[in-house]
Every structure is written in C-alpha cells, then in structure tokens.
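Subject: sequence -> structure tokens, single chain

Hey, anyone have a minute? Need the predicted structure for the following. Not urgent.
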Amino acid sequence: MGQGAGGTMAKQTPWIIATILVVATVAGIALSARNKGAAATEQMANAGNAAPGGAPASDGTGPATIDISKMSLSEQYIKLMNKVTAAAENGDSATVVNFTPMALGAYTNLPPADRDIDARYHAAMLQTNVGMFAAALALADTISKEASDNLMADYIRIIVAQDQGDSTKAKAERAKFRQHFDTEMKKKRSEYEAHTSFLENYRKGAGAK
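Reply:
Had a minute. Here:
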C-alpha cells in the first residue's frame, strides 16, 4: 500500500505543482494590475492590526512567520487575513499564494454568527487576489441577499470585473456603487463604520469614473 500511495502521489505531484504555478501567476498578475492603478489597501481596506508596509506587527509577528495556535477562530482569521493584506500591499504574490488558503480555511472555520458581511467581504478580497472570481462573486451574492444594495457587495463585483479585464462591467458596477452610496452610508452599518475612510475615498477617486 505504501508503494501504491507513493505512486499516486507521484502522479498527482505534477498537477499540484501546475495548480500552484497557475495560482501564483494569477495572483502576480492581479497584484501587478492593482498596484499600477490603486493601492492594495483599497482592495482590502481596514486591515486591522496589520503593520504598514508589511513590517512586523506590534506583536512581533513578522511577514514570514505567524503563530495562531493559541488564538480563537476569529483571531486566527483576522491575523491570517492581515498577513495576506500586508503582502498584497507590497506586491508579494508568493506570500499571498502561500497564506491565502490558510486564511480562507480560517474563514471557513468561523462559526456562522462570525461570518458577518465584513468577514465575507475580506474573504472575497482574498479570493480575488488568487483568481477565485466565482467564489468571490458568490460571497457578494450572499451579502446582497442579506442587505440589498450593500456597498461591500458592489465593491467586490467592481474588483472582479476589473481583474477579469471587463471594463464595461466594471464601469456599470461603479455606477451602482455611486447610486447606492449616499443611502447606504446613512444606514451606518458596522461594515461601513469599519471602512468609512476607504469608502469615501474610493467614491471620490477611482469609484467616480
């Protein structure tokens, strides 16, 4: 059985490597395109305690290491999401590719009550970084189902359209974002409170086109 398992692994290895290379390429292209047009902090705003510029966080956790063994499920997700966010800000596609599966796994492990709109928004942004566009749009749909015209869902759809090179769709989604903006911000939803500066800056900047 050992040889059989080894043979299976040997057959699977080229496919695993190919998948990693494809994901890495997609991530690199997405981060490169975003960094040319806007800061990565606009893609995953409100990075919590992520240190600026990818520097070690105040807790001593540097870009290359992270210990989540003693953290709650929510803390694990936030810490891993922060790490990927910092890497995205620096165009570090290798770290994005290596840690995004862990961050998304931490999201999946969250109790349903903790998978609020903000958590889903960040998970969708993680997914767009590695080309998981269908999954990101599915999360946007869950947000819209819970809160129609939600700006975070609008933004996810904008980024997916942009990353896929669909300028017509992206323009239409930005128009929806602007259409919903004033009414939605008056609702003072928690996800808006957490991203107020980002949303307002985006509305005046790239979102205004």
